[in-house]
Amino acid sequence: MRNLGSSFWGMFIILTLFWLIIAGTLDWQVAVTGLVVSLGVTYFNRDILIYEGERPLFTFKNATWLLLYIKDFFIAVFKANIQVAVLVLSPRLPIHPGVIHFRPEIKKEASRVLLANSITLTPGTLTVFCTDEEMMVHALTEENAMSMLDWELIDELKHMEE
User: What predicted TM-score, i.e. pTM, was given to this entire model?
Assistant: First the structure.
């Protein structure tokens, strides 16, 4: 069992304030009920709280990198949409599925999850599995699968980790 830390009490305070705001009154019965319910909800959901050691370091620099990542991600999705449309609408239907295993050399779990989800959300690709060291990606063509090795979004995630 984890030590009850600032995340626990922070969530408790947020829930209590939310309760008081939607209740619209400061009667003692409403306040006590809000405290008890907020404490219970926070206690029974303590396993899903993000604790101090698990939090990503949030800085202005990281926020800037994240915004750039999101911009480049939308550009990649747009390009992938066009590629998939060309593949599907082609009379020859040149789909040759490919699977690639690679090591993105990304250290933080949050960055790996972001990368895996970005790959899956990009049309024509799917993250089959993701571990601490390796990822397996399925793509509509072998060329698209091989392009995962030097995808620019991986480099941006590496910069975000620094």
Answer: 0.65
